[in-house]
Amino acid sequence: MLTQRGFLFVCVSAPPTTDARVAALGDADILVAMRERTPITAALLARRPCLRLLITSGMRHAAIDVAAAKAQGVIVCGTDSHPEPAVEITWALILGLMRHLVPEANALRSDGPWQQTVGRDLHGARLGLLGVGKIGQRVAQIGQAFGMQVSAGRPNLDAPRAAAAGVQWATSQQALFAGSEVVSLHRVLGERSPAIVDADTLACMPAHACLINTARAGRIDQQALIDALTDRRIAGAGLDVFDIEPLPAGHPLRTLPNVLATPPLGYVTARNYRDYFGQAVETIAAWLQGAPKRVLD
Q1: What is the C-alpha separation between 179 and 209, in angstroms, rounded?
Q2: What is the pLDDT of residue 23?
């Protein structure tokens, strides 16, 4: 945390309560919020009327009440955020799960069993995508390069739009989950897209299928997922996002053997960080001149 003449950059773990966030903000004029780690609510904003500029990494931030900020006269700005890193971590998790890379590497390093698992083939398997936006389409292209069949579904997707995205159309979410060896989630979480992968949805998946989530933890009923993994009703899960971050010590998603999990790494690359913080500084300088950049609606 760095304060200088009323400016505040928060570069540490997010304060856990509204009172702690209010105290951390102090009399800051400017707040730079990293991703969606810290809720910036109307209640918090009302208690810090001195705040004048709020900058978030990326151009979408579900944890910021932008309307409340604007009503209080706070300007909210964003930065560039690149989709490619999320695509890359998605495929790292898929490959790691399907080829058992972590247990095999750990066994080799610890002088354990030699070549103890049989990997699953991507070629000829079906990849199901829930969401085919700028990230989902890139994930689809890589799946096709591996020789996978790719299906996609979402509430506003139909056959022509699926064809335009280069994927097959799944007529329902249940059909998508039931017919895929790997399902990967790429829909954002918003008011019109609540948690949608529940116990009934997971029950549609074949026992040999894997679920990947590098989008939002709120897309999945976490307890239903833990139950399905514990009972081996699905083969595994690759996760880069969680309901609680950091995950508490001993949490099942830290310990289940059929989970390949990473602390959120999807956006953590040198290029993204250069743009997040470089453009934050650029925006502060522009705001001081009366012309802030990348203002959010």
Answers
A1: 9
A2: 86
What gap in Å lies between CA 186 and CA 216, rounded to an integer? 8
Q: How far is Cα 243 from Cα 246, in angstroms, rounded to an integer?
A: 9
Contact at 8 Å (CB) between 105 and 114? no
Closest CA to 211 of 183, 185, 231: 183
**Is pTM, for the whole model, over 0.85?**
yes
Q: How far apart are CA 212 and CA 135, in angstroms?
A: 13
Q: Which pLDDT belongs to residue 155?
A: 64
Is residue 181 a contact partner of residue 205, using CB atoms and an 8 Å limit? no
**Looking at per-residue confidence, does 125 or 193 come out higher?**
125
Angle between helical axes of 84-98 and 101-109 (0-180°, round to 10)? 70
d(CA 84, CA 93): 15
In degrees, rounded to 5, the angle at the alpha carbon of residue 101 between the alpha carbons of residues 144 and 175 is: 40
